[in-house]
Predict the 3D structure of the following.
Amino acid sequence: MKAFIAVDIGGTQIRVAVFPEQGTTPIQQQRIRTVAEGQTAVERMIGLIEELWPTDAEVVSIAIAAPGFLDPKAGVVVTAPNIAGWVNLPIAEIIRSHFHVPVYLGNDANLAAMGEWHFGAGRGYSDILYITVSTGIGGGLIAGGHLVEGAHGMAGELGHVMAEPGGPLCGCGKRGHLEAVASGTAIARYMAEKIAMGLPTVFAPGSTPTAKETAMAANQGDSLSIEAFNRAGFYLGRAVADFLHILNPELIIFGGGVSLSGDTILLPIRKSLEEHVISPEYLKNLTITRTVLGDDSGLLGAFALMLSKLEQA
Ligand SMILES: [Zn+2]
């Protein structure tokens, strides 16, 4: 029997799943915290892979979904701001030399798009825009039946397009990007600022609600919370209109925690999208939906990447 090992590493947790050749149900899977006393994230990742290594199956390959800026072809993490010490880290070579099987690396949002395309909301489509809105904003593009990686694997950074010149500082260090005005972090920051200014809301003076708490308050009619989501939706819709002009996809999949707020964010996105698109033709036969794989999209995307490498071989 053949097996494939998928790894999804983030700032908070490392997940490893062992998949059989058929189906999407892992034979084994486990998650641990990324950070622990006396161990590096790489040592913890290697330890977890060793623990789950199947004894009765031949491991074909390992694929790693990682955050930050990567060079997937070289297998190098250039920078991963959420993982201490991950600068110019040749992670694929480190893992390959330990386990002696091929190792592939992919950006977590790009692989989430792959996962949705192969196993989730994107099945049967060939032109897909995947956008994840959570702490940050990430993206993945499928165009003409191929994942768009770019010359050095850095394509699809949908969160770092200009939304408001001179606006708030983005996670990348530049100002005014979409992520800085429309992510969960940006929604929470907007709320904290407006509450500090004394605007009427259900939240107590001085409180700093999360995007999730803001979504719940918006559902109950809190006007400031509704405004926070309308504002984020406006920016998201305007940016997505630009993406439609570039890519003309047939499907948009929203992932990430903010998308769980449903119509609270999707309705303002659609309104803004209709306002900013240059022709209603872009919206004809365009499906807008949410992730069906949720937290598993990165792992399943890593699995899909390994299957696609097998086909290419
Ligand atoms: Zn940015």
Q: What stands out?
A: The first strand starts at residue 2 and ends at 9. The mean pLDDT is 95.
